Amino acid sequence: MLLREIAERGYGGGISQLKAFLAPLKQGEPEPLVRFETAPGVQMQADFTTVRRGRDALLALVATLGYSRASFVKFTTAEDATTLCAGLREAFDYFGGVPAEVLMDNAKSVVIERDAYGAGLHRWNAEMLELAEQCGFTPRLCRPYRAKTKGKVERFNGYLKGSFLVPLAASLKAAGLALTAEVANQHVRRWLDEVANARVHGTTGAVPAVRLPEERALMLPAPALKAPPPAPMRVALPLESLQHPLAVYDELLEALP
Question: Which of 44, 52, 84, 197 has its CA 20 to 30 A from that of 64?
Answer without folding.
Answer: 52
